[in-house]
Amino acid sequence: MTATNVTPQELNYANHSRDQYDDEIRRSIPGHRELHDRLAQIVHDEFHGSAIRILELGSGTGLTAERVLLLVPGSDYAGIDFSEVMAAHTRNRLSRLSVPPLTSRVICADYAQIPFWPVSERSDLVLSVIGIHHQGTDEAKKNVFRKVYNCLRGGGLFLFGDLMTFRDQRTAALNEALHYHHLVANARDEQSLREWAYHHKFQNALAPMESQMNWLREVGFRQVDVAYQKFNTVLVVAKK
Ligand SMILES: C[S@@+](CC[C@H](N)C(=O)[O-])C[C@H]1O[C@@H](n2cnc3c(N)ncnc32)[C@H](O)[C@@H]1O
């Protein structure tokens, strides 16, 4: 088995336009907007608008990249997405930014299969929002965290937003129930609910938040904190 537990084809991206996908992910990820508000606040407070080097794992349609790049004009951006459809959406979105990055490259590859440092050496910031939960095993997630640590400069930040579970079984069960309730309450229609519920139940590989924070510490991050949480949606900030 490869580290990544799905193929881009299994994720059905070709069936959505960019705007449709953006609408669906905003509806389907509890706290998607608030997580991005918090992430933007952190980028603002940490970098004060200076140009930085950014690597993003799983750039999707470029929503997260756009939010961040507008705060740090003149930055160097490298994104990786294993879906050609999504990589094209990111490129397209970034090419239309009112304040374009100095350089931007979006590579179509499985980030679990490639080294990061030739893509982005000594990054100031690594981003991944809803992009690591398809690493199918604990070991696969730890490998990604190790690679993130190694490509960051000292003091650099990893902003890791994702769907996670929890060690305490009652907390895990409650947040899972609330996640499905959110899907039912917010789905555009029944077909969309069918797809997102299937995706969550059979394609997502969630690991406990507490374990992932420990793995980040084990690979070397000196400060690891939760910056936002709603149900299974968590934003972890890890500082090298
Ligand atoms: C759900 S999107 C999220 C995009 C954006 N951050 C947001 O919140 O709207 C995550 C992206 O990660 C990509 N992805 C997942 N696993 C990947 C892997 N192993 N290598 C490269 N891309 C991956 C998917 O193709 C998808 O486009």
Summarize the structure.
The chain is α/β, with parallel strands linked by helices.
Give an overview in words.
- The chain is α/β, with parallel strands linked by helices.
- About 45% of the residues lie in helices and about 20% in strands.
- It has helices at about 20-30, 30-45, 65-70, 85-95, 140-150, 170-185, 190-205, 210-220; strands at about 55, 75-80, 105-110, 125-130, 150-165, 225-230, 235-240.
- Helix 5 crosses helix 8.
- The longest helix has 18 residues, at about 170-185.
- It starts with 17 loop residues before the first helix and ends with a strand.
- The model has no long low-confidence stretch (mean pLDDT about 95).
- S-adenosylmethionine binds next to helix 3 and strand 2.
- S-adenosylmethionine (SAM) binds near residues 60, 80, 86, 130 and 131.
How would you describe this structure in keywords?
240 residues; alpha/beta; Rossmann fold; 21% strand; globular; binds S-adenosylmethionine
Number of helices: 8
Give the helices and strands as they follow along the chain. HHEHEHEEHEHHHEE
List the domain count as a whole number. 1
- Tell me the distance between the termini: 31 Å
CA radius of gyration is 17 Å
**CATH architecture heading:** 3-Layer(aba) Sandwich
Largest sheet: 7 strands, mixed
* β-sheet strand percentage: 15-25%
Strand line-up of the largest beta sheet: 3-2-1-4-5-7-6
User: Class in CATH?
Assistant: Alpha Beta
Q: Do you know the CATH topology?
A: Rossmann fold
- Give the ligands present: S-adenosylmethionine
Mean pLDDT: 95
3D shape: globular
Helix content: 40-55%
CATH homologous superfamily classification: Vaccinia Virus protein VP39
Derived from helix and strand composition plus strand pairing, the structural class reads alpha/beta
Model regions low in confidence, pLDDT < 50 over at least 5 residues: none
**Number of E-state strands:** 7
